[in-house]
Design goal:
276 residues, alpha+beta, paralog of FGE (formylglycine-generating enzyme), seven-stranded mixed sheet, four-stranded mixed sheet, 4 helices
Length: 276
């Protein structure tokens, strides 16, 4: 397993150094005392980014996604999921977890989330697409890196399991309760990383919070594409993955929703991506 750490602070940018984390368990009965975001991972390539603010430290864990070609969309899904089309992607990094409230607060100095009880590892929510851009801008200034939102194609490829995909309906399983917090098993968001990961070692890509993508919302084309970034202009941005208040049929790896970039919501969050 290749693991790298990038140490960043307002005063000092470190180099990439080898790192191995010790394993630590998680429990549904004690989710704040045992932190699933520090568990040892089976992901083959990870980037660990340390962020410091005074004596406070947070770690962003990114998983390398090996590029490839896949069929994007779902001919049997909703109108917005068709037509299926071939997409080829280059390698990239994507967040192992949804961005958490503690990470947001360290960068932004506040917390917009509706549900904050036991907030340390809950996903940040009630954020608009524009809010995410401001967070990413400040994060990049602090780290010297180039984080961004994933494109919609990158998000779907990663949710499907990338080149390791087993063709599941949801991200990591065809049984949604194995991998997702959704309307049949919760009323609220939950600590990230408590359920089963997908084939790439990514957590919560189904359910918990909807995740903003970089793209403007638009109709699919049947033609093959390479590293697509969506329409040049639009009025709404794409959201993916469903949320804790969604029915299962709206949580598949291909289902698309959208909202105006200045609109937030109690179950809207995001995860980070970065080009290689």
């Amino acid at each position: 397993m290749k693991k790298f750490r990038y140490i960043a602070s307002a005063l000092l940018l470190g180099a990439l150094l080898p790192l191995t984390f010790a394993s630590c368990g998680s429990s549904d009965d004690d989710e704040d005392k045992k932190d699933p975001t520090e568990n040892k991972s089976d992901a083959p390539d990870e980037l660990y980014v340390d962020i410091w603010s005074g004596s406070i430290r947070e770690v962003i864990r990114m998983v390398k996604v090996e590029g490839g070609t896949f069929r994007m969309g779902n001919a049997d899904g909703s109108y917005y999921e068709s037509p299926e089309h071939d997409v080829t992607l280059s390698d990239y990094y994507i967040g192992m977890f949804e961005v958490r409230q503690d990470e947001w607060e360290l960068i932004m100095g506040g917390n917009p989330s509706y549900l904050t009880e036991g907030q340390r590892r809950l996903p940040v929510e009630s954020v608009s697409w524009n809010d995410c851009q401001e967070f990413i801008k400040k994060l990049n200034e602090k780290t010297g890196l180039t984080f961004r939102l994933p494109t919609e194609a990158e998000w779907e490829f990663a949710a499907r399991g990338g080149t390791k995909s087993k063709g599941y309906l949801y991200s990591g399983s065809s049984t949604i309760g194995d991998v997702a917090w959704y309307e049949d098993n919760t009323e609220d968001t939950h600590t990230v990383g408590r359920l089963k990961a997908n084939e790439l070692g990514l957590f919560d890509m189904t359910g918990n919070v909807e995740e903003w993508c970089q793209d403007w919302m638009g109709s699919y084309s049947a033609s093959a594409q390479t590293n697509p970034t969506g329409p040049v202009t639009g009025t709404e941005r794409v959201l993916r993955g469903g949320a804790a208040n969604f029915a299962a049929k709206f949580c598949t790896t291909t289902f698309r929703t959208f909202a105006k970039p200045d609109q937030s919501g109690n179950f809207r969050g995001f995860r980070l991506a970065m080009s290689i």
